[in-house]
Amino acid sequence: MISIIIVQYNKPELTKQCIKSVSKHCGVPHEIILVDNNSEDPEARSLGATLPGIRFLQNTANEGFGKANNKAAAVARGDIFFFLNNDTIVENDLFIPIRELIDNDRRIGIVGPRLLNQDHSLQLSAGSLPSILTETKDRLFYRRFEARAQAAVEHAHQLFSVTREVEWVTGAALFIRRNLFESLGGFDEEFFMFFEDKDLCLRARLLGAKVVYSAGTSLVHLRGASASSATNGLYRASQLRYYGKHRSQFEQVLLKVYLRIRKWEYGE
After folding, report:
1. What φ, ψ does residue 148 adopt, rounded to 5°?
2. pLDDT 10s digit of each residue in the chain, 268 long?
């Protein structure tokens, strides 16, 4: 069984659209667990009563992405967990091929499908783990890709047209074996939002598990639809925590100097 775990904070219309699409296209035994992170929207808090066939967990505070997902995982029954953003739309049965991919290779611990924008253009959703060098290179490449520079677009489509082992896949749509997730102790709850997916993938790789990007499966991600104006500070705080856990003291200092030059707040 696959346990499909969705966390929401307000935006009930996105959640309903997501769950409807999952229910329509999931062709394997599954359960859907929805965690409400203390939404202010009354409709969001009432979805447990209005959406049939889902398991609903109500938090009394907004505890962040990782902690909410961990809470759902603790009561989940599946041998595979699928952590799924509520701002996603499933348009075909990606569950059968990913189930087969995982079952056919015991070394695979985490899988991320291809992500598409609403117009079905490609999203960049996997890659190399963060460092000063990789983040600098990625930032330059992403800017060129978003600007639709021909060389960048062609290179991205080449990379994302092949199923391959990668260092991380996005937590917006992340499959993981239950036993691996439990061995890792779940998401690091000190990451309120952002970088918890990269941290999870890094720790999985340290245990010998493969992280795989699946080019032959896809879903739509309405990127930014569930974000808020407060996310920049959360992003920077999580970035610093990631560097504090996994990067050298030298890189930590470089990052802090960079953030101070740019006058970004990061929760210190």
Report:
1. 65, 35
2. 999 999 999 999 999 999 999 999 999 999 999 999 999 999 999 999 899 889 999 999 998 999 999 999 999 999 999 999 999 999 999 999 999 999 999 999 999 999 999 999 999 999 999 999 999 999 999 999 999 999 999 999 999 999 999 999 999 999 999 999 999 999 999 999 999 999 999 999 999 999 999 999 999 999 865 555 567 888 999 999 999 999 999 999 999 998 888 765 544 4
Rounded CA separation 224/235 (Å) = 13
Determine contact, residues 54/23, Cβ cutoff 8 Å.
no
What would the DSSP string read from start to end of 16-64?
HHHHHHHHHH--SSEEEEEEE---SSHHHHTHHHHSTT-EEEE-SS---
Cα 83–chain centre separation: 7
Q: Look-up: residue for tokens 């010998």?
A: 208
Q: Are strands 2-8 and 30-36 parallel, antiparallel or unpaired?
A: parallel
- From CA 46, how far away is CA 26, in angstroms rounded? 24
Q: For residue 176, how many C-alpha atoms fall within 13 Å in the half-sphere facing its CB?
A: 32
Residues counted in the chain = 268
Tokens of 17: 């659209």
Cα distance between residue 61 and residue 39, in whole Å: 8
Hey, what are 223's tokens? Answer: 């990127």
Phi and psi based region of residue 259 (left: phi greater than 0; alpha: psi -120 to 50; beta: remaining): alpha
Tell me the C-alpha distance between 184 and 110, whole Å. 12
Using an 8 Å Cβ cutoff, are 6 and 34 in contact? yes
- Taking every pair of C-alpha atoms in the chain, what is the biggest distance, in angstroms? 52
CB of 152 within 8 A of CB of 144? yes
